[in-house]
Design brief:
Length: 393
């Protein structure tokens, strides 16, 4: 009999009743160190007092009015995002997937309105992840996500990650945009080198193509800058955001330059819930923390320490781990053992990590993870690795 919850996930046998900072607690009181943060979502950890205050205060006043009316919390969050990024304008969604939908629509509408309606193709990359909607799976293109769901949304081309020759060889006549994650998340924590991001920006400029960055996973302070592309010193035309921006409350956004957004006039897009008062009240509280340069320099310092300690862990367990990759608190342990076994052994050691493609275990902790918690994380990951070594000895 089919379970009452549609079984599209292989869920771990864990169930948490409470969260406190970087800790998740089961009903029996067992405490797990959360290095997954709900897949890079709980940017400030669980039950952060500022977020709880923002949410509860707003909950006592007004939850939802729809976008037919002014929403001051939405206006404030848009102003904050515009102040701190390349963007001139913001549309709020409820998820990364919805941000992908709008990013694709915006790019196509841009060229349509410029009198080039045939410029519709989106060039994307193998190993990427942009969500599970029809546009999201067509953009990512992998068989795992698309098989059985055809006919797929047309107009996407996929290049191998890092295949510069294929990029240079593209005929850009009908290309609306290049869509890429500056750091692939689901694909196995693969950062795009700064040089490549710079090269992509130039390629787009030279060929009249928009650059869409998917910063759903790598944005909102995760790499130690507010957005990952800042490391390369470039800016996109359109950017997808979600996950960390709501700190655990469902919220996403599409940020764009005035020019790139020029086709999106009244009536061209909408969302009943997107940018509702509750989500945006929390989003403002998240932004006030994460956009603070002092907060970000703390992320860099602690993430550097964590990485160093992870290198030591890898050296101490060469049969289990192969190396560390990633940026800031978006780290990946490339495994020699099965990554899913490492994650499971972590559950026994009461530490939460998340598997990714390419046999990688993702480490995406709350951005305010402390030095003591880093030491605890290394200890628990070490216990997990030792248990796996003993099991295979
Ligand atoms: C890079 C990236 N884009 C888009 C998405 C889709 O976001 P959501 O699951 O919020 O729809 C994800 C989710 O993991 C992601 O990592």
């Amino acid at each position: 009999m089919i379970p009452s919850v549609l079984p599209t996930y292989n869920r771990a046998p864990l169930s948490f009743v409470k969260g406190e900072g970087a800790w998740l607690i089961e009903a029996d009181g067992r405490r797990f160190l959360d290095l997954g943060a709900g897949i890079a979502v709980n940017a400030l950890g669980h039950a952060h007092p500022a977020l709880v205050a923002a949410l509860t205060e707003q909950a006592g006043n007004l939850w939802h009015v729809s976008n037919l009316y002014q929403i001051p919390q939405q206006q404030k969050l848009a102003d904050l995002l515009v102040e701190h990024t390349f963007a001139d304008t913001v549309f709020f969604t409820n998820s990364g997937t919805e941000s992908c939908e709008l990013a694709v629509k915006m790019a196509r509408k841009y060229w349509y309105d410029k009198g080039q309606p045939d410029k519709t193709r989106i060039v994307a990359f193998e190993g990427s992840f942009h969500g599970r909607s029809s546009a999201g799976i067509a953009a990512a293109g992998s068989e795992k996500m698309t098989k059985g769901f055809g006919p797929l949304l047309p107009g996407f081309t996929h290049l191998r990650w890092g295949d510069h020759d294929a990029l240079q060889a593209i005929d850009f006549t009908d290309v609306a945009a290049i869509l890429i994650e500056p750091v692939q998340g689901e694909g196995g924590i693969r950062p795009l080198p700064d040089q490549c991001l710079k090269g992509l920006r130039k390629l787009c400029d030279d060929n009249d193509v928009l650059l869409i960055l998917d910063e759903v996973q790598c944005g909102m302070g995760r790499t130690g800058r507010l957005f990952a592309h800042e490391w390369a010193g470039i800016t996109p035309d359109i950017m997808m955001v979600a996950k960390g921006i709501g700190g655990g409350f469902p919220l996403g956004a599409v940020l764009a330059t005035e020019d790139a957004a020029s086709g999106m006039t009244a009536g061209t897009h909408g969302s009943t819930y997107g940018g509702n008062p509750l989500a945006c009240a929390v989003g403002c509280a998240v932004m006030e923390h994460v956009a603070d340069p002092e907060f970000l320099s703390g992320v860099n310092a602690r993430a550097g320490l964590f990485r160093q300690r992870l290198e030591g862990l890898v050296a101490a367990h060469p049969d289990i781990f192969e190396g560390v990759r990633g940026m800031g608190f978006m780290l990946g342990l490339k495994c020699r053992a099965m990554n899913t076994d490492v994650v499971k052994a972590g559950y026994d050691a009461q530490v939460i990590t998340v598997p990714a493609a390419d046999n990688v275990v993702r480490i995406l902790p709350p951005l305010n993870l402390t030095e003591d918690e880093i030491a605890e994380a290394i200890d628990r990951l070490g216990k997990a690795a030792t248990a796996l070594e003993q099991a295979t000895a």
